[in-house]
Specification:
This protein is of the alpha+beta class. Helix content is 18%, strand content 48%. Strands 3, 4, 5, 6, 7, 8, 9, 10, 11, 12 and 13 form an eleven-stranded antiparallel β-sheet that branches. Helix 1 (3-16) packs across helix 2.
């Protein structure tokens, strides 16, 4: 229809039914106006979302669970004192980890317009302050990058810490809390010839220590012992460069980024050096419920083992891989599921803590990668490990895990050896297992076929 014809029809409709035609034109005009306004608002929001200089802008926005970006733009109670827990580990292991290596080239942690109070002569003044890590801000081309600013030592330690200092921070001991308090360093290792073992250094709230070793040689010979001592040194550390756990003739210490372990008893001695692989660690976490408190950290998901062990008159040179974790808390009535395995390309960790005050139903599963840069590749929700073998020694464990990003893993653990520790009706099992893990994680096919360790409990 040409414009002249349309105008003729509209004018005659207006003359024939002026009220109806006027109402129709007003309604149509109002609808068009509202649509134009909405499109303009949408375009403005899109531009704002892409503006890195605006709060909650940029390609990726990280917020604590339950906080909406609109709270930061419009203000609100839930936006006050906003902090992201474990932010440094989030940046190092996830944003700068292997999962986003092809997408994220630089990260700039920043604080903008935070209200701080400055005391000067004459009173206290409220001012607004912003903070950056200068080198990170320049790499990310941040709007907050004043010329001439350089990283302070604390800035460099936050983003790219020295591995030895990071281990010292991760592995610190804690002030005891409650009579059932216990805290320990735990190591396991496997050598190239098939020897494997477990080493424990445990302290209680009164400063008493228990040191234990379980070793299975490649020829099947088995050694197991525990000793109790009044600890002479516990690794509370502080600002000292060495963390040392010393009990009787036994010692485990962290110095210069390496764990050095010395064990002495009749018929058994060991001198071991364990060097963690950088980037493969699980940061400290705590569970609290009532009087229950439990903490866990894995400073070394995979490490290099060197040393020697004397069993009777035989000296065994040891070379292989090791693992180290650290627990603390009020552990009365606690059981768990746990497992770990690693290859030069991947490290897998799963776990579940059981206590009457905790609600549980899913197993935590974490997969780490060493390429293209080391760090956390994925966290998944796993099923409870399905155990075969009845109430006797487990023969097989099966685990399935998924997450909302579409990652999937299936783990089949075949038990090669099982070492029991009985307490009443409960049996604690330390398992040497063969892992077969398959799945799709971060768009890549993952396959692990390797030896590892697992722990579980059964009741009679």
């Amino acid at each position: 229809m040409n414009p002249a014809t349309a105008f003729l029809i509209a004018s005659r409709a207006l003359m024939a039914r002026p009220r109806r035609t006027t109402a129709l034109l007003l309604g149509y005009g109002l609808g068009v106006g509202v649509m134009v306004a909405l499109l303009a608002v949408g375009d403005a929001l899109l531009l704002q979302a892409r503006d890195e200089e605006v709060v909650a802008g940029g390609d990726l926005v990280l917020l604590p669970e339950g906080v909406d970006p609109e709270v930061l733009k419009m203000g609100g109670v839930t936006g006050m004192y906003l902090e992201i827990p474990n932010a440094r580990h989030l940046v190092r292991q996830i944003l700068l980890g292997p999962r986003y290596a092809s997408a994220i080239a630089a990260v700039s942690p920043e604080i903008t317009d935070r209200v701080v109070y400055v005391r000067v002569r004459g009173g206290v003044h409220a001012v607004r302050a912003s903070g950056i890590l200068p080198s990170a801000a320049h790499r990310a081309r941040s709007a907050l990058r004043p010329p001439g600013w350089e990283d302070a030592p604390a800035d460099r330690a936050w983003l790219n810490p020295d591995p030895a200092r990071l281990l010292h921070t991760l592995d610190r001991f804690h002030a005891p809390s409650g009579p059932a308090w216990a805290e320990w360093w735990y190591f396991n290792f496997a050598t190239q010839d098939g020897t494997y073992g477990y080493l424990s250094f445990i302290a209680d709230a009164e400063g008493r220590a228990m040191v234990g070793a379980t070793v299975r040689r490649a020829d099947g010979a088995f050694v197991r012992w525990t000793e109790r001592h009044r600890a002479t040194v516990l690794p509370f550390g502080g600002n000292t460069p060495t963390l040392r756990f010393e009990a009787g003739p036994h010692r485990a210490e962290l110095r210069d980024g390496r764990y050095r372990i010395r064990l002495r008893r009749p018929g058994f001695t060991a001198e071991l050096e364990i060097t963690p692989q950088p980037g493969l660690y699980f940061p400290p976490v705590e569970w609290r419920s009532g009087k229950f408190r439990s903490g866990y950290v894995v400073p070394a998901l995979r490490a290099e083992l060197r040393g020697r062990m004397r069993l009777g008159s035989q000296v065994l040179p040891l070379r292989g891989t090791a693992y180290h974790d650290h627990n603390w808390g009020n552990w009365a009535g606690v059981t768990w599921e746990w497992g770990s395995a690693s290859t030069p390309d991947y490290a897998l960790l799963y776990g579940l803590v059981r206590h009457p005050s905790l609600q549980y139903g899913e197993t935590f599963v974490a997969l780490y990668a060493t390429k293209p840069r080391p760090g956390l590749l994925s966290v998944l929700r796993g099923t409870l490990p399905a155990r075969e073998g009845g109430q006797s020694a487990p023969t097989r464990l099966r685990l399935r895990a998924v997450n909302d990003a579409g990652d999937t893993l299936a783990a089949d653990l075949v038990v090669l050896d099982a070492l029991p520790s009985r307490a009443g009706r409960t049996t604690f099992w330390q398992l040497r297992v063969r892992y077969r893990v398959r799945g799709m994680v971060a768009g890549r096919w993952v396959g692990l076929d390797t030896l590892g360790f697992a722990e579980t409990f059964t009741e009679r």
